[in-house]
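Appendix B. Chain record.
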Amino acid sequence: MRTKTFFKFLALFSIFLTGLISCAHVTEDLAGIPERITATDTSFYDVPLAGNAFVTIKPSDANELITENGLANWTNKESVTSVYFRVQDSGSVSLKLRAKVAPANNSSKIKITVNGNAREIDLVGSDFEDYEIGHFTVPAGYVKVDIQGISKTGGYFGDVSHVLVGGVAQGNLLYADDPDYYYWARRGPSCHIGYNIPTQDPIQYYYGELTVPTGEDAIGSYFMSNGFSEGYFGIQVNAEAERRILFSVWSPHNTDNPADIPEHLRVKLNKKGADVQTGEFGNEGSGGQSFLRYNWVAGATYRFLLKGQPDGSGSTDYTAWIDLPEKGGWYLIASWKRPETDKNLSGFHSFLENFNPNNGHLGRKVLFTNRWVRTVSGTWLPIQSAKFTVDATYNAKQRIDAIGGVESNQFYLQNGGFFNTIVEPTSSFSIPSPQIAPVIDFDALP
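Structure tokens predicted for this chain:
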């Protein structure tokens, strides 16, 4: 699964692969929000739950959810809804809650907690009102406001549409304020690594290793290892009991509806591995998709191999393998033929995203190491430099918890969880050159 914002971003690959800036800039401050918080500013900012809230604690029998109108179906007193916004500097903020209790004549008592400081307020009335919560001292960075029910006279604690934040100077508050971005902001910003390839010779194979650290594999995560100009190849967490290895190739016909693709522009399956599911995908561009349900594990390192080879008739065959020792070694996911494409591999990248908006408050991280390309002439070349980029959600300053860099001589990407470290987009990184090229018997590949 992929975001539309990422596919819009793919057009920029030719830009971020053309050059590297000198080094990454890491900071705990937010660029573009220069002023300190001041309690003398009496204006309030309406932070909509629709784009900035998550039900972070939800018992199995609870029904709470975040809708386009905010918190709804609020009946369980064990459930906790968390609202996030980001302040530039420490200081005092004043909070209000926009809420109502329906049907009429019902009331409820709820608890608001910020940094361990809890306040109780009473809600009453079937029309939305702004209820005073109080003043809180908050540190710089993302602030979490927890909302939990205590008691109620009716079936519902209430509906909540906004948290109102005051005492913040103009421009010092960051949150999702554009309804067009609410869905994407709750998913969290996607981030990417674009690799610098040390040759102009045509590339036939692209090899890379990927590790998801233990505890960084939240449901909804897609860890994409071997991305290229025409598709992507990686692993994802689809549900508590389902994980997949996913390989997709876009059609050259630009549409979000696969049914609109003319027959001569459809990506066609050449072959696939045992138990691999294949079909078409849409709503993110369209093309051919293949996946293997496979319970990969966090903490293990997986090896990916991708091949791109023109067929001599105006199309190119793209083939993906992953090394699964318990299945005998290199395992074929699929080979796809892309029409009107006469080229070898290009646009080398990796990315990290969350495709489940209800889990956007959870963090995820991935490590990329031992990256190589192999030219058509048979020469292996190591990859040792890359550029960090972000999607439209980040660039629109709707949410900015996404970073990339180098850790223990490995490239990494991290997003979600509302952390405060910032790595400036377009920052570049380098690692010591990998020394031992992959040893692969290409003739024995399935």
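Further analysis of this model is presented in Appendix C.
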